[in-house]
Amino acid sequence: MRLKINGEKEPAFNLKRFSIIILLTFLVISSFPFTSSSSSFAQPAKREIQSLPPGLDNLISRVMKTFNVPGLSVAIVKDGQVLLSKGYGVRRLGESSPVDSRTLFGIASNSKFFTATALAMLVEEGKISWDAPVIDYLPSFQLWDPYVTREITVRDLLCHRCGLGLGAGDLLWWPPSDRSRKEILKQLRYIKPASSFRSTYAYNNLMFLVAGEVIEAVSGLSWEDFIEKRILEPLGMKDTSPRISDLEKKDNVAATHAEVEGTVRLVKPFLVDNINPAGGIISSADDMARWVLCHLNEGKINGGGRLFSEKTARELGQMLVARPVSPAPPELAPLKASFSGYGHGIGIRDYRGWKILQHTGGLPGYVSQVTMLPDLELGVVVLTNQEATEAFSAITYSILDFYLKAPTFDWVAGFQQFKERRLKEIKEAEKKAEAARDATSKPSLPLEKYAGLYNDDWYGEIEITWTGEKLRLRFTRTPSLVGDMIHWQYNTFIVRWDDRELRADAYITFNLNHEGAIEEARMKPVSPATDFSFDFQDLLLKPKKKTQ
Questions:
Q1: Which CATH architecture has domain 447-543?
Q2: Which residues of the chain does CATH 3.40.710.10 include?
Q3: What CATH code would you report for 12-124+204-424?
Q4: pTM of the shown model
Q5: Could you say which of 21, 137, 257, 527 has the lowest number of CB atoms within 10 Å?
Q6: Cis peptide before 175 (omega within 30 of 0)
């Protein structure tokens, strides 16, 4: 599952881009096509009416065609005004129902900033402290290292510096598992850290589940109810739900699409609520415009009142942990950054000399991006129904460049060229692995001897069975992780998952002891393009009983 920000699977620049910056024309907001819900936005008085980038619709059409996106929606807010909240394309490939400004998409990891904001509100109320240990609120909370268990604070939960590796533990919930939220968190104590506490940035979803539990323990409301009653209702986000499972209950919903084995097609949506505090919110362009307006207005609610204070707004915008700054690829030179980091549930970096707050989100069939430039009171939201990060990046940076009066840059062409180069590199890596394979080698044991139950301390049981013709591997708590084991070389097999939508085939290598019996097995993804939430490499599989 792709719950990530810019830079998790690729360097930060890889998930952003866009196309031509065009000339300025002056259009009043009422002249632009809004849905009826868009017209409900109250506009502040005595504001200069802002313009939209000329040719924006044509640009978005070009993006959708270039990157095979059936439908998307875009919101732009500037100086307290909603300049645009609009849908493009269709909700489902092959059908005609259009995307509009109220069409719902999964926003995935863009949910993390909601969780951070909820905690900030509780800090304001004096119910928690940012720098208090988590165990003050969750006494049963436990990590592998007792020192980290004692010292990790509420703030640490939100900025990916707990010491766990990239995506560590994600196989507890992704692909959809049968574990409850509390069951997932209980397993945290068995996941070994990859680095020392607070020394390294490594994106992790599970700490946001812990944050959700803190909210419940302190407020007396479930995370979902708190988000609904304390954030969505005051902001008038009437279409938004904090429960990903509500996708099945709504009518105006974008279907989920992805490129699978070379073809863009429908894929199964993620509908399990166990990960909601890290990535379970569903929303629309209209509602996300309200959310961004509130943050750009430092907590003021458009129409009156406050969600949080100016002090809290400043705190939420602080960088807490630095990330390495990678050189921009030649195709995307304007993405050169001077700094990059992460704050309270949101990424922070510079773009063309301006500080931006930005996050991306990815679920099966949905990718999205939210970008805010506080100093310009500018926000851009792009929600899509196809896993093409190039699309939201191109749209976002084209819009930003217009308001920054930046030099013209063809982001569509740049990201297309970058994508083509990356795909070529991935294919070359796969060919290199194939060339290094000793296809004449044989496994050390008869195939049936690899069958049996294996256990990993944090995941649990994995079962390998011998059908009489082939080996089959099954993750016992993850229904879709089932597939054939195909011999690769020596004691290494490739697990080819039955569900080809996963795009995550994995190596499994067996190590034998001095007696020739299986001592352990390790796994890792076959392709460098595999999503990081398939953290197979973190598993250490030990036979539970003698293999047969």
A1: Beta Barrel (2.40)
A2: 12-124+204-424
A3: 3.40.710.10
A4: 0.90
A5: 527
A6: yes
